[in-house]
Specification:
This protein has about 130 residues and is mainly α. The chain is about 80% helix and about 0% strand. The mean pLDDT is about 95.
Amino acid sequence: MRILKNALAIVIATIWISISEVVRNEYLVKSYWTKHYQGLGLSFPSASINGVVWGVWSLLFAVIIYIISRKFSLLNTIIIACLSGFVIMWVVIGNLGVLPFWMLGYAVPLSILEAFIASLIINKMQVV
């Protein structure tokens, strides 16, 4: 029963993360991403496989949050999750030259909110 309840917490957190990512990247900033990529002479990756990969990323992020939450407080879980899930990604895509740094003004608060709610879901639902 404990395993099922913890798995359910991960699944619900994954769903939340996926919804958050779709709303942010498809509805709030996709036009900015598309213009930015066009300016780089690239096409913004929006094929179906990209959505599948984001779904896998969401699941992996939820699992990471679950693992972290077993050892740390809610606040520490949120901080570590943001660092491991988002900051590292921003460093990588910044290094690749495809991150519009001004977009971090939107991304940072939305990422903190995403990690907070996912951590809260797991924190409230998990059985230790």
